[in-house]
Amino acid sequence: MAGGEFLMDTKSQAEKAEQLRKLHHGPRILVLANAWDVASARVMEELGYPAIATTSAGVAAALGYPDGQRIPREEMLEAVARIARAVRVPVTADVEAGYGTTAKDMAETAKALIAAGAVGMNLEDVTGDTESSLVDTAFQVEKIRAICDISASLGVPLVVNARTDTYLMPIGPEATRFERTVKRLRAYRKAGADCLFVPGIADRETISKLVKTLGAPLNILVSRDCPTLKELEELGVARASTGSAVMRASLGTTQKIGKDLMEKGSYESLFASAIPYADVQRMMGRQLS
User: Tell me, what's the pLDDT at 289?
Assistant: First the structure.
């Protein structure tokens, strides 16, 4: 995708960026049920979600790629652009580790993301599937600064959700994991990150300790063992997201329907929660008006 192929009104985008930024400061927790295509994004928008977040794993799977930066940047951003054009609320995109290895690459991704119509982004600090792919803290800081600088110069200061995978992978000795995580996240915040994302934690004590220690908006990835959204809000969590879980749940529904048809000759599950055809037509038709 060429850097300026998808152009939107800069003033409108800047307003959406500020709107998204403010959503990280209460009074309610920002809940994001991550979308992977236009249809899922429109469903969430119609339900009243104040912003749409994409899932890199979901977008990649929908286009035939595994997660983990296997999808080309151009294809990922084209999917983001389709979503941004289809909804009226702010869109924040999961761009994994930025689809590059240098600060210049990060600046190019940020430029392309703004051209696609997004106003926020997730940025990971691992570039592969192993602990050895963890980016040096100082270099990750440089990357975040490059994103913040270029997006500000373009008039759309991106809302950066800086992620560390120290808990998710996990990385390094457990005894020092909290301290190492905090050190990284404080550096990311100082570099310009608006929100700090720590997937892989679910216990109340660690979440509460992170909120108090960081003193900055914290994003939690919800999981089966995670506290409820109400409890996360009470703990001071600013943002909760589902990652690829909604997409995977949809695939699970598809799988069940397929099995029922093949093995039972039943199509009850096919119509159990299907959105009416007319509603889908209406949601998609808005793009053409």
Answer: 58
Which domains are assigned to the chain? Answer: 10-243 (3.20.20.60)
Residue 119 structure tokens = 């106003």
Nearest to 95 by CA among 109, 85, 108, 116: 109
Q: Where are the alpha helices (DSSP H) in the chain?
A: 10-22, 38-46, 56-62, 73-86, 103-115, 137-153, 177-191, 204-214, 229-235, 245-259, 277-285
The CB-side HSE value for 207 (13 A sphere, CA atoms) comes to 26
Task: In whole angstroms, give the CA distance from residue 37 to residue 250.
Answer: 12
Task: Tell whether omega for the bond before 173 is within 30 degrees of 0, i.e. cis.
Answer: no
> Average pLDDT of 243-254?
98
Distance CA 190, CA 141 (A): 8
Q: Determine the Cα–Cα distance for residues 17 and 97; give it in Å rounded to an integer.
A: 21
Question: Whole-model pTM?
Answer: 0.94
Q: Please, which contacts does 225-232 make with residues 24 or more away whose CB atoms are closer than 8 Å? A: 226/202, 227/202, 229/29, 229/31, 231/204, 232/29, 232/207
